[in-house]
Structures are given as C-alpha cells and as structure tokens.
Amino acid sequence: MGLLTVGTPLSWEDTKKYAEKIKKHGILQFINLYKNLKDRQRDTLKWGDEIEYTLIYIDHKNKSARLLLKCSDILHVLQEEENNNPGSNQNAWRMEYADYMVEGTPGQPFGGCLKQFNRVEASMRSRREELMRVLKENETVICFASFPRIGCPGFTEPILASSPALNPSSNSLYYPDRAIYPSHPRFKTLTKNIRSRRGSRPSINIPVFRDINTPEPYNQDIPNDDGEAKLAVLPNHVYMDCMGFGMGCCCLQVTFQACNIKEARMLYDQLTVLAPIMLALSAASPAFQGMLTDIDVRWGVISASVDDRTKEERGELPLKNDKFRIPKSRYSSVDMYISECSSHLNDIPVNYEEEHKQMLIDAGIDETLAIHIAHLFIRDPVSLFAEKINLNDEVDTDHFENIQSTNWQSVRFKPPPSNSKIGWRVEFRSMEVQLTDFENAAYVVFIVLLTRVILSYKLNFLLPISKVEENMKRAMKRDAVKKELFYFRNTTSYDASDEQVELTIDSIINGQDNGFPGLISLIRSYLDSIDVDIDVGCTIKQYLCFISRKASGNLQTMASYMRNYICSHPEYKKDSFIPEAIMYDLSVHLDKVSQGKIGCPSLFGNPSTKSLNVTPPNCVKVSEEVEELTKKILSVKRIN
Ligand code: ADP
Ligand code: MG
Ligand code: MG
Ligand code: MG
Ligand code: MG
C-alpha cells in the first residue's frame, strides 16, 4: 500500500475543491523525484511477494464458515517484531481493505542470489504459522481469492445486519461497513468518496453460472433498496453494490527492483503482456454472493467495485461538467507501454491534460513517460486528509502517491521513495492468491525467473496494447486456461517482424511443436546457462513442473477445483446456489489442505512433492526437443 497517512479525512465535496491543486503538486513531486533519481544506477535485484490472507471463523455447531473481522485486533501483535527490530524482522504485516484480511510480506526483500528461491516457500510458511499463532480455536486462515458467500446474510463473524441506513460509508444493501478495516480512515473514506464521485453506488453485475435448476430468470434479492439497486441489477446476474466486494478479494503480487529506470520501464512493458496470461493461470474466484458465477477471476469485480467514473465519463451522458470520456475504471489493466522504444505499440489513445503533459516535458521528461504520468493524473484524488494539503514538493511525495496508489493497474511502475535506499521498481499485480504456500511460491518464483530470462536474453513479448487489452477480457472468462486463445508473439526477439499468433495458455507456457518454444523452456535454457546448485535446482524444478501442469490442464485451477467441489457436494441442488452447509464443508476441507494435513493431487500434484528438495513427478509436457529448439532460437536471435 503506497499511502497510509493518518489524519482528518475530507468528504468528496471538499476533496473536489482541492483536486486540481493536488494533481498539479503531485506532478511537481514526480518531477522532483525524477530529477533526483533518474540517473540512479546499478541497483541490484531485490524482490518480494505480497500475500493477502483471509481470516475465517469456522462455526462447527451451526455448520457455517464466516469471514472473521479481527485484523484490527491482531495487527499490532503481528507488527511487534517489526517495530522492535526494524530491518531484521522475519515477516512484515500490513492492514488491508477489509477487517477479515491482512497482507503479509517477507520482512526483508529477497536478493538476487539463486539460493533465495529456497527461502520463498519457507517465508510463506512462517507467515502462515505466525498468523495462526495469534488466532484462537475455530479461527483460521484460508487463502481465498474471493470468499464464495461474501455478501450473503450473516457472512461475517460477528454476524451483522446490513442495509443502506446502517452503512454510511458504502450504503450497501449487503456488505456491512463494519467489515471495512476500522482502525484507519483511508478505507472508509475511499469507499464513500468513490461512491460520491460516481454519483451512485458502484454496480457490479456478474453473469450467473447456469446449471439445470438455476432459476430462469434469476433475479437477485434487493432487500432494503432505496430505489437505486432496482435500476442497477440485471436479471441472471449476481449483483454487488460496493467496494468491499472487490477490494475484499485477495491477490498475490510481486515487486522487483530494477538496476535503473530504463530497465524498470522495459520490465514494466514486458510484464504488461504477461499479466492477462498469469491472471487466467491463477484463476481462483468462481463464486460471489453465495452463487456460482460464469467467471473464474476477481479482476472484473474489483474493477467495477472502485469505478468512480461519472455518467458523463462512462459515456452514459454527453460531456458537460466533466473533461473526458474515460473507457475504463481506475482499477484496470495497463493502458500503455512506457519505454520509448515500445511507444509505437500504444495503439489505444489515452486521455491526459495537455497542461500536465507539458509540465513533465518542460522538466525534461520524454514524451512516453510524460504521457504515462499525465494519464494517471486524469483520476481525481479520492482520499485526502485536511492536514496534508499544503506540502513541500521538494521533499514530500504524498500527492504523487495519492494518485499513483489509486490507479490500480495490472502492473505498477514504482519510483524510489524519496530519502530511501530503494531503487526503481515494478510490481506485477494481476495474480490471484493460491490456497497453499507451495502454490504461491511456485507462481512467484516463476515470475521472478521470467524477469531474469527477459533481461538476460533481451526477450521481447510486446504486442500492440490493444491485443493485451483483448487478452485481459479473455482471461476473465470461465475456464480461460483451457478454453481461450491469447494473442502472443511467436518469436521472442526484437529484430523479427511483429508476428502475432493466437495460442492457448498451454502453448504459451509449455510450447508448441515447431512454434513458440514456451516460457518454461526459455526459463530452463536460462537455468542451464547459469550455475544452479542441485538443492535450488530441485526446488525450482518442482515449481516449473507445477506451473507446466496447471497450464496443460493436468492440474485444476483453484477456481475449477472449488467449482467442482461445490457442484459435486450432496447438498448442491444444481441451482447455482452455495448454501451454508457447502461453504462450511468446503472451508473445513480447504483448511486441512492449506495446513498440509491432507493432500490435494488435483490442485498441486502429489503432496509428497510439497516439501523442498524432494524429487518432483515427471512433467507432462516440455519435451527435450522443444528445449533444443529454444536453445537454438536464443543463440541465434540474442541481441546485445
Ligand atoms: P505495496 O505498495 O505494493 O503494498 P509493499 O511495501 O507492501 O508494497 O511491498 C511490496 C514488496 O516489495 C514486498 O514483498 C517487499 O518485501 C518488497 N520490497 C521491499 N523493498 C524492495 C526493494 N528495494 N526492491 C524490490 N522489492 C522490495
Ligand atoms: Mg502491492
Ligand atoms: Mg503491500
Ligand atoms: Mg494493497
Ligand atoms: Mg495488498
């Protein structure tokens, strides 16, 4: 989380008065940062993951599993070690949007040494254990990307009533304000101001998964409606009405430090192309509001849940009071590449204020980066504290961070914080959190290795940005891993002509005969070219094998696993509904799996491969032939 300053929060009406000023000063603050830090060189690779954990209360007596509102009670305990020994704490803990969530990261970032890959899963295990230690009986941690019964009556512990009158921040019919993290004003302020700016509650409509007994049409209950929900709800859709449905979902993020700004911009662009692929591959969100839906990922739900655009900006009314028609929510996929040499692939126009761009250009910033920053600044501040309006732009960066940290894009370009030892960084943000430490470690290590391969071999995955946008839409569909085709380049070199093909995720990850070699082969060639000791090599091999099998469909995504579990439960009536009893059984089951008490071969293979340094099962794909092919491609087309 970029900005967590405390103070007296302003309403949207008051924030609006300062919006232009905040934006101008935000840009000045970026300019000052840029001037001071643009020549920063030779930062080493540092990187770290962020896992968002969900606290669950398991009520054995009533056979119910609920979201446990407890983070505000336990956070200070979790943060004790960091407060007492900053710089040597093992884990670091941060508040999140909901009081049933908490974000855990390694206490210190991992470094560039290969041995670090043996520490990732151990770090995740240590975080899980630390969290479990502060919980009581019947309380547990389950890494749900989205909790299937979120928004159902009584979905929290303690059980709370919900209605617009009871929820001054969100006005939600379903999601009690008390589920929002209570001990910091940021989250409630964002909730309220996003709604006020938009002029109504967010409206999130997700198609229902149609089963043989699903009501036709299905019309969701809209209890205590003040008239607004009736206008927003669509038939045959799950309807959700506030920020919590989206920001209350959990993701898996990875941040990398680049050696300089140029490398960070290049990495940002390449990772932009990989974001939709990894979203589809990590799908873990098949249900919302107690119903199976026709999607598998959280992305579209969060995007709609913080969509603060007005009717004019959304194109529902002609422009009169607002400046722009804005195509997407402020939570959305990357709009443009930011390296100068990638700018010809920015084939979707972006909005920005000419004046903002000119300020940046006049400060000596190139046009591509100037447009990127200016385009972030079409968004208004939606959380502002009275004490933090007048700042010193030479040293403060709060106004820049204010806008930057509420542009929730699939990849984020993070400038160094002022007065820190930290360099230019890039954050990969699209992945859904996985159930177990093993799975989360595998996804994280896979992405870290990919960045090493991209940089070492100067690989180029860039497509026209419009194709990445299309890939993002496809990634959000149910079972995208198995059913969708994604635009991808069939060569990884810069000098080849821009050849695009449509590939399955299996082909992208595992390669095709006589075609794209596959990301795993590229990683393997890279690993062959460096000295990896057996210990680390074995760990990495297990992760790559796991990713390979996820991509081939040999292992299920968490989304299809949960969907199948629900659909084959004896109490499921084939009507798309997920009653409490199923939610309870599912949670008890997933709890055991995530504690390592039982295996789950269809999710991550043979449980005996979960521990480090155990020989992994054979991969289903990645033939030696393909590896040979890759080596050839790399040696022929490597550019220096
Ligand atoms: P966010 O703003 O995305 O919430 P966090 O402060 O939670 O960012 O950190 C994201 C990750 O970045 C953490 O895993 C942390 O360990 C890691 N990290 C910390 N310092 C660096 C650095 N210098 N370079 C790269 N990653 C870092
Ligand atoms: Mg983050
Ligand atoms: Mg964080
Ligand atoms: Mg966050
Ligand atoms: Mg987070």
What does this molecule look like?
This protein is about 40% helix and about 10% strand. About 55% of the residues are buried. Helix 1 packs across helix 13, helix 4 packs antiparallel against helix 14 and helix 8 packs parallel to helix 15 (about 465-475). Strands 1, 2, 3, 4, 5, 6, 7, 10, 15 and 16 form a ten-stranded mixed sheet that branches. A two-stranded antiparallel ribbon has the order 8-9. Mean pLDDT is about 90; it is low at about 605-640. It has 23 helices and 18 strands. The chain is of the alpha+beta class. One magnesium ion (MG) binds near residues 1, 50, 94 and 103.
Secondary structure elements and their pairing?
Elements: H1 12-37, E1 46-59, E2 64-68, H2 71-78, H3 80-84, E3 91-95, E4 101-106, E5 110-111, H4 120-133, E6 139-141, E7 156-157, H5 185-198, E8 204-207, H6 228-232, E9 237-240, H7 243-247, E10 252-257, H8 261-281, E11 287-288, E12 291-292, H9 299-305, H10 311-314, E13 331-332, H11 354-362, H12 367-376, H13 398-404, E14 408-409, E15 411-414, E16 425-428, H14 437-457, H15 465-475, H16 480-483, E17 486-489, E18 500-503, H17 505-510, H18 519-529, H19 534-552, H20 558-567, H21 580-594, H22 601-604, H23 624-637
Bound molecules: adenosine-5'-diphosphate and magnesium ion (MG) (4 copies).
